[in-house]
Every structure is written in C-alpha cells, then in structure tokens.
Amino acid sequence: MHILIVDDHALVREGLASLLRGLRAGCTIVEAATCSAGLQAAALRPMDLALLDLGLPDMPGLVALETLRERFPEMPTAIVSASEDPATVVRCLDLGAKAFVPKSAPAARIRAALEALLDGRVAL
User: Fold this and answer.
1) Sheet harboring 28-32: ordered strands across?
2) What sign does the CA torsion over 110, 27, 11, 37 have?
3) For residue 119, which phi and psi values (nearest 5 degrees)?
4) CB neighbours (10 Å) of residue 32?
5) Predicted TM-score (pTM) above 0.85
6) For position 26, what pLDDT does the model report?
7) What stretches of the chain show up as alpha helix (H) in DSSP?
8) What per-residue confidence (pLDDT) applies to 74?
9) Mean pLDDT in each 10-residue stretch from start to end of the chain (124 residues)?
10) What is the dihedral of CA 39, 43, 49, 50, to 10 degrees?
11) 32, 74, 86, 20: which is closest to 57 by C-alpha?
12) Other C-beta atoms within 10 Å of 103: how many?
C-alpha cells in the first residue's frame, strides 16, 4: 500500500506516517511539504491514499484538493486540517474528499478515521 501525506509541517507528516505504519505493516509512505511536490510524487507511482492539509504554502487548500482529484481521480483523498469550518468540510466532501479529519481530534478518532480509509470506507 502506498500512501501520500501532503502537509507543510514535518511533525504532522511524521506523526501521521508513524500512525499509518502502526496500522498497516509494509506501508510505503511518501511525504511532501507542498502540493506541487505531492503531485510530482503521485505522478511517479500510483498511491492508494492521499492525506492532504488545506494550509499549504504553494496552493490554496481547496485548489489543491481539486487539482489532486482532477489529475488522480482514482486516488482516494482525505483532508487532515486545522480548519473545522463546517462550510469548508462540506465543500471538501463535495469536491470528492473521502474524509475530513480535524487535527484537533483525539488520537483515537484520527486512528479510527485512518483505519476506515485504509479499509476503503468513507470516514466522517
């Protein structure tokens, strides 16, 4: 399983990668600090899941989501964001996100959402 984590904060990327490796042995995790780097990584190999932050330095969050979904429609994409604005959550789901996980959520909730995503389910 290949998973792409796109977040400009190294601590968040590394924490999510560690959590994912604990959930699925043998996961290949690719980390990117910008949407551009994430797009390049996804073009190099098919990803089974992308976790995307909305606060990236090179592209507005919703544009990043739209771009990922347009270029890689088969790649499930989930939002992991500090934003909890209900309108943003709805807009992300409308744009095809499979989940919206607030960074403020307890670890158990984030773990449950990631497990659902890895099992191919939508996580809300």
Assistant:
1) 28-32, 2-6, 49-52, 77-81, 99-102
2) negative
3) -85, 0
4) 21
5) yes
6) 87
7) 10-23, 35-44, 61-71, 86-94, 107-118
8) 93
9) 96 93 89 97 95 96 96 95 93 94 89 85 78
10) -10
11) 32
12) 17
